[in-house]
Design a protein that fits this description.
Elements: E1 2-6, H1 11-20, E2 28-33, H2 40-48, E3 54-57, H3 63-70, E4 75-78, H4 85-90, H5 92-113, E5 116-122, H6 145-164, E6 168-173, E7 176-177, H7 190-200, E8 204-207, E9 213-214, E10 217-218, H8 219-232, E11 240-242, E12 248-249, H9 250-261, E13 267-270, H10 285-290, H11 299-314
Parallel strand pairs: 1-2, 1-4, 2-3, 4-5, 5-6, 6-11, 7-10, 8-13
Antiparallel strand pairs: 9-12
Helix pairs in contact: 1-2, 1-8, 3-5, 5-6, 7-9, 7-11
């Protein structure tokens, strides 16, 4: 199989490429990434692990570059995006171009290449809908331009499947965390931000009261699902949650970090952020029907692996 991974130099993308390198059915992996959020250090990490891949440095908005990269692909895993709710509030148009328009370009490249397509959507599409757990057939109520762009991503994907008979799978990611996830920027996700601050013994910044809850999913579990979907070319007519129905609030997350690190963590509370969803928890019934052999990594084990990676990168004990 020839597999193209857009955003393959990013956090989830690089973890996926490392996983695909161990899959017998995959003969070639092509990474397409403009390095706007991905990094050359992730590519170096992949090479250090012996992963074989071809790297195309460029944007998914470059239609000719994308068409050339996707020519002959059996499956395209579309992870390239402009992430972050706060970033989308700063520049909504840029988020739309990367996430919505970029997805249309990927789908067009896939249509002409005859490729199956797996795309990354987000649990943020549920937005202000208070019902828990989140089922895929629930109403979507995006609270941010990022969430709206991800709703467009999955809507276009399903429209292309219906219009052109393509095999597609739109997966709604829920708070993915793990090794390679960057911490040192203003838009960092909560787990790497907490782990980085905790190891440096800085106060942890908690937006709001810390009672907001998330369905944290370890990146190793996510790439298990993605790799299986690649090999079997799994398709589904509607979006699918990629999380396993856990629910942990941020204060409980800090408590688990304290347990694993063996010392108390100072925290600083700031006002809640615009566009943040209060609670998130997936209904995983569709996911487990499609991927019955996947066993998720627990939050505790995933945090331990994440802490180990941050320690190895920083040299902190």
């Amino acid at each position: 199989m020839r597999v193209v991974v857009t955003g393959g130099a990013g956090f989830i993308g690089a973890n996926l490429v490392a996983r695909l390198a161990t899959v017998d059915q995959v003969d070639q992996v092509v990474i397409v990434d403009d390095l706007s959020t991905g990094s050359t250090s992730n590519l170096d990490w992949l090479r250090g692990r012996g992963a074989s891949f071809d790297f195309v440095h460029g944007s998914i908005l470059d239609t000719q570059l994308l068409a050339d990269a996707c020519d002959g692909a059996d499956t395209i895993v579309h992870l390239g995006a402009r992430p972050s709710v706060p970033r989308s509030l700063q520049d909504p148009v840029a988020s739309h171009l990367a996430n919505a328009t970029g997805t249309v370009h990927v789908l067009e490249a896939a249509r002409h290449a005859g490729s199956a397509v797996i795309v990354a959507s987000s649990s943020s599409v549920y937005g202000s809908n208070p019902q828990m757990p989140k089922r895929e057939d629930m109403a979507t109520r995006p609270l941010s331009p990022y969430a709206a762009s991800k709703l467009a991503t999955e809507s276009y994907t399903n429209a292309y499947a219906n219009s052109f008979g393509m095999t597609t799978l739109a997966l709604r990611f829920f708070n993915v965390f793990g090794p390679l996830q960057a911490a040192g920027h203003a838009y960092a996700a909560v787990v790497p931000a907490f782990v980085d601050a905790a190891l440096a013994k800085r106060p942890l910044t908690v937006h709001g009261d810390g009672r907001q809850s998330r369905d944290f999913t370890f990146v190793g579990t996510v790439v298990q699902v993605l790799a299986d979907a690649v090999v079997r070319q799994v398709g589904h007519p509607s979006p699918v949650n990629l999380a396993f129905g856990t629910r942990t609030d941020l204060l409980a997350l800090i408590t688990e970090l304290e347990r694993q690190l063996g010392y108390p963590l100072e925290r600083t509370h700031t006002p809640s952020r615009v566009g943040d969803v209060a609670h998130s928890q997936a209904d995983n019934s569709v996911l487990t029907e499609l991927f019955p052999d996947i066993t998720p990594v627990s939050l505790a084990d995933g945090l331990a692996a994440t802490i180990d990676w941050f320690r190895s990168e920083s040299g902190r004990s």
